[in-house]
Amino acid sequence: MPNIAVLGSTGSIGRMTLEVVASLGVPYRIVALSAARQTGLLARQAAETGARAVAVPDERAAQAVRKALPKGAAPEILAGPAGLELLVARPDVQIVLSAVVGGAGLPAALAAVRAGKRLALANKESLVMAGDLVMAEARRSGAEVIPVDSEHSAIFQSLAGGRRSEVRRVLLTASGGPFYSRAVEELAHVTPQEALNHPTWSMGRKITIDSATLMNKALEVIEAHHLFGLAAEQIQVIIHRESTMHSLVEFIDGSCLAQLGPPDMRTPIQYALTYPERRAAPWPRLDLAMLGGLHFDEPDARKFPALGLGFEVVRRGGSLGAALSGADETAVAAFLDGQVRFTDVVPVVKRVLDAHRWIAQPTLQDVLATDAWAREEAKRWKPSCTSSK
Ligand code: MG
């Protein structure tokens, strides 16, 4: 029985997941939901889906949900940080789709794989922070980790065309974000509003800024390393402005297999839910003739230094991913707040990585402590960034 828990159900991926599940119909069913802030929408979603349980971060949010619930809807409400972990471990949940924003998604992702659930993962930060731990727990319990990130879904689907030992490398496509064609000198004056305007994908705020700095692609390099057991040399980033070829796998005989489709997250969401089956879907199809052409280009490492940090994390491993994730989340929030410039975001993250005391085999506690330290450290850099040119 595909009973689904959707974590982060009020965000962009969460809302699309509810739409996909409604379109799939029986036997797919939402049994649990969680959200951090939009309690009114969460209450409506709980009533519409008939969810049996919802999780929120604190008692105040729980009160707000109770008040907003329409008559007749009475899901169990779990409040507090442990609520998410209780939610995913419920015996009536088989699939956990995690679309939590940022590092907050890690404990629930770990709890899901520990409990042997299928983890449909949109929250890439949980792998960036603690991919070794999450994948080891999944191997131990037999839990499947199915990527929802469009590039990784493409790689996952293309890998079916050969054996793992026959993979030479993967090519991770990147749209390049809204500033790909802009001169590097102009980037310092980019406003949050401009950076939030992504050319091909409609997404949440954090991932949209990460896409503009290409930090999102750096996080995806780390995600690919953990999901598919790839070394840094086996991952190449290629700019592809049309966001139509969602990534490729190159096999040892030189054959490349790719997955293509319109830039629509509903496709990878549905695949992660129905895998290993495919189901008919009502959304718009790819029209290659109308598109006219597909273009590819080398990424500009000078303009987008974030990419190099992603490869550094893959090479050095250990606690470095947790430092990167915590620092980036803080730096992005500072940019959206107008406290640092767009061109400060990646240098702030780099300085935090340079100051980081590296742990080779971090425990979950080490990971969480590193993340918390990196957030504080990133805040410390703010004043120097604003005052410096
Ligand atoms: Mg992606």
Structural write-up:
- The chain is an alpha/beta fold and 389 residues long.
- It has two domains: 3-147, Rossmann fold; 152-262 and 288-385, RNA polymerase sigma factor, region 2, helix turn helix motif (Rna Polymerase Sigma Factor, Chain: A, Orthogonal Bundle), CATH 1.10.1740.
- It has 16 helices and eleven strands.
- The strands form two sheets. A seven-stranded parallel beta sheet has the order 4-3-2-1-5-6-7, sandwiched between helices.
- Strand 1 (3-7), helix 1 and strand 2 form a beta-alpha-beta unit.
- The longest helix is centred in the last third of the chain and has 24 residues, at 364-387.
- The protein is globular.
- Mean pLDDT is 95; it is low at 383-389.
- Bound molecules: magnesium ion.
- Magnesium ion binds next to helix 7.
- Magnesium ion binds at residues 149-151, 220.
List keywords for this structure.
389 residues; alpha/beta; Rossmann fold; Rna Polymerase Sigma Factor, Chain: A; 2 domains; seven-stranded parallel sheet; four-stranded mixed sheet; 11 strands; 14% strand; disordered C terminus; binds magnesium ion
